[in-house]
Amino acid sequence: MTELNESYDVVVIGGGAAGLNGALMLVRQRRSVLVIDAGAPRNAPADGVHGLLGREGMPPLELVALGREEVRGYGGQVVTGEVVAVDRVGEPATGTEDSAGSAAREFRVELADGRSVFARRILVTTGLADELPPIAGLRERWGHDVLHCPYCHGWEVRDQRIAVLATGPMAVHQALLFTQLTDDIVFLSHTSPATDEDAEKLAARGVRVVDGEVVEVLADGGKLSGVRLADGTVIDRDALVVGPRFSTRATFLTDLGLTPQPHPSGVGDHIPADPTGRTSVPGVWIAGNATDPMAQVGAAAAAGAMAGAQINAELVTADTAAAVERIRASEAAAVTG
């Protein structure tokens, strides 16, 4: 088991693109940083990361391994573990120092294995979980020929026979986006029939609407071959587009007063934050899919970098204020002495 320091400037909870990029920004400013990663990245089932300049097609776990190496190269620590609780133990975001001159401990982070560490600031980048519809055979193909994002995986299924499963408010939008990639799309109304207006849009783009509940995703030779409806009808397809519900993993923040809220897009929940990643709780920052369910890898990494830079600036401001107070106190003591 990796030996941990007692306290850090920043503990980053979550070791994906957002967390590692945030940590990288901080360690390059000589901050003491611990990254705690549960080791279950959302995009692990995918064959590659797409739309990320300079890393196009790289396997997700390879990208994470490179990021960890870079953070460690600047003195950061990265460990595998699951955070179960974060408690405030000091004054909110004071940045003051104790009598020994060490950084104030504002948060205690507890891991499932019983270890705990202290931190001045917290950066949460735990991402989200994809809640898939309970259809037989669907999860087994997730991340391969069952997909949700045309920008992440659309090129890989171009010119194929695609079905779009209506599971939420974004289904019609998904179907229209995929018309850019293939001329053969079927819209499966499933349990969410299209409105007349939506049906008109789909028809205008050559998308055929098929009614009936989908009960099974079929595969042949290790590849998706179609879907079966409740009445036994089989629709032959090469790929299936599904809109999962996005559920933030940052539920351990509840005791601090940060509870998941419905995302404005209607696709799931998130922990609200401002554009820099600052939450409503002083000292707690968040970046990536935990707050922005729609962010791709590049956007999540950029958000992590922004949050890391802002955290460092906040700590510099706090340390400066503490230094000024010490000088004033020393001068006052000299006068009264």
Explain the overall architecture:
The chain has 337 residues and is of the alpha/beta class. It is built from six helices and 19 strands. The protein has helices at residues 17-27, 60-73, 150-153, 171-178, 196-204, 297-336; strands spanning 7-13, 33-37, 77-80, 83-88, 107-111, 116-124, 128-131, 146-147, 162-165, 185-188, 208-210, 214-220, 223-229, 234-236, 239-242, 245-248, 261-262, 269-270, 284-286. The strands form five sheets. Strands 1, 2, 3, 4, 5, 6 and 19 form a seven-stranded mixed beta sheet that branches. A five-stranded parallel beta sheet has the order 8-15-9-10-11, covered by helices on one side. A three-stranded antiparallel beta sheet has the order 12-13-14, with no helix packed on it. A hairpin with a 4-residue loop joins strand 13 (223-229) and strand 14 (234-236). The longest helix has 40 residues, at 297-336. Mean pLDDT is 92; it is low at 94-103.
Architecture blueprint of SSEs:
Elements: E1 7-13, H1 17-27, E2 33-37, H2 60-73, E3 77-80, E4 83-88, E5 107-111, E6 116-124, E7 128-131, E8 146-147, H3 150-153, E9 162-165, H4 171-178, E10 185-188, H5 196-204, E11 208-210, E12 214-220, E13 223-229, E14 234-236, E15 239-242, E16 245-248, E17 261-262, E18 269-270, E19 284-286, H6 297-336
Parallel strand pairs: 1-2, 1-6, 2-3, 6-19, 8-15, 9-10, 9-15, 10-11
Antiparallel strand pairs: 4-5, 5-6, 7-16, 12-13, 13-14, 17-18
